Amino acid sequence: MRVVLTGGGTGGHIYPALAVAREVSRQHPQAAFLYIGSKHGLEAQLVPRTEIPFQSVEISGLKRKLTLDNLKTLWKFLRAVSDSKKMLREFRPDVVIGTGGYVCGPVVYAAAKLGIPTMIHEQNVVPGLTNKFLSRSVTKVAVSFSESLAFFPSAKTVLTGNPRATEVMHGNAEAGRSFLGVDAGKKIVLIFGGSRGARAINEAVVAMVNQLGQFTDTHFVYVTGDVHYEKIHAELQQMGDISTNITVLPFVHNMPDVLAATHVLVGRAGASTLAEVTALGVPSILIPSPYVTNNHQEKNARGLEKVGAAEVIVEQELTGESLLKALSAILADAKRWEQMKKSSLSLGMPHAATEIVDQLTAIARKK
Ligand SMILES: CC(=O)N[C@H]1[C@@H](OP(=O)(O)OP(=O)(O)OC[C@H]2O[C@@H](n3ccc(=O)[nH]c3=O)[C@H](O)[C@@H]2O)O[C@H](CO)[C@@H](O)[C@@H]1O
């Protein structure tokens, strides 16, 4: 099977595409792939770390209001459709899958116009603009939550979950611990603010970092996000003697292994992160990003809170103190942790990638 993958901008759109690729390879060992993304998105850094060839098209996001910039965007879109058509004619895919982000627009649209079977995957409850636009032309739509079914044409939409859930089930806790240099006797608290880091979380962590020594059986893994790393690293160095039970990293490339070793997660409430923690049953403290369309991260987070899988701290109430308090409450109470784990697992959809690939295989051109 020959598969074109597209999706980009942030990790929340890219990792699901890579998870689909891995599952396709498991089911079809001879499969060939091409990833089409944007040179300016995170995909340009993440995809070349895999064996999947990467090509790019120029594209930018549509503003919700009509502006002169939108005319330029439209022109760029049409040019990207024509570039995508060239790449698709050359690669001759049997199927194309888009996992969201602007770049999916021209690639999936071009594929549909060429008569190639297409599928989009929506990670969030409320769909993004690009997926809504594409849903008219694609063969299949896969969604992560039952609440999203209503946004798409019912005849072609299926509920599958997020493929990252399956991917993290293949993580190896021992490999995660050995990568972090943390021995098996210690609990790991993983802190990260989505795929790009989050300033508010960074500020709260810096404010409480001197208190972490009190958790003698716990190691903290704090991922700042690439762009924030230098600044945070310098700030922590200036503070002098910070606790020794913390590792600070700019980005983690082997998240399935690290998550498999994680006792509690502190982070944003992006859809892929939540699919990962619920597949593994990791209790979490969630600080939804307020800077996203329709405040969708808070909706994501409240879903976990409702069943007791997570504690939610809204960004206005996030301080070093409130974070430390929430952490202490979970770390000191084994029963509560067990209950949170169970509730988290109850929301997990660990077979998502398999279901998506079954659907892809069913619609793909047969030789
Ligand atoms: C600010 C913003 O627009 N956020 C959106 C974006 O977030 P973002 O890309 O941050 O979202 P997610 O939480 O969904 O995904 C992050 C992904 O990156 C991985 N990861 C993260 C850090 C790291 O060091 N290493 C690593 O591998 C995580 O394991 C996860 O797979 O896309 C999501 C999915 O459409 C949306 O729900 C979010 O609201």
UniProtKB/TrEMBL annotation:
Topological type in the membrane: Peripheral membrane protein
Signal peptide bounds: none
EC number: 2.4.1.227
Catalyzed reactions per annotation: di-trans,octa-cis-undecaprenyl diphospho-N-acetyl-alpha-D-muramoyl-L-alanyl-D-glutamyl-meso-2,6-diaminopimeloyl-D-alanyl-D-alanine + UDP-N-acetyl-alpha-D-glucosamine = di-trans,octa-cis-undecaprenyl diphospho-[N-acetyl-alpha-D-glucosaminyl-(1->4)]-N-acetyl-alpha-D-muramoyl-L-alanyl-D-glutamyl-meso-2,6-diaminopimeloyl-D-alanyl-D-alanine + UDP + H(+)
Positions bound to UDP-N-acetyl-alpha-D-glucosamine: 10-12, 124, 195, 297
Source taxon at top rank: Bacteria
GO molecular function terms attached to this record: undecaprenyldiphospho-muramoylpentapeptide beta-N-acetylglucosaminyltransferase activity
Family membership noted in the UniProt record: Belongs to the glycosyltransferase 28 family. MurG subfamily.
Known role: Cell wall formation. Catalyzes the transfer of a GlcNAc subunit on undecaprenyl-pyrophosphoryl-MurNAc-pentapeptide (lipid intermediate I) to form undecaprenyl-pyrophosphoryl-MurNAc-(pentapeptide)GlcNAc (lipid intermediate II).
Protein name per Swiss-Prot or TrEMBL: UDP-N-acetylglucosamine--N-acetylmuramyl-(pentapeptide) pyrophosphoryl-undecaprenol N-acetylglucosamine transferase
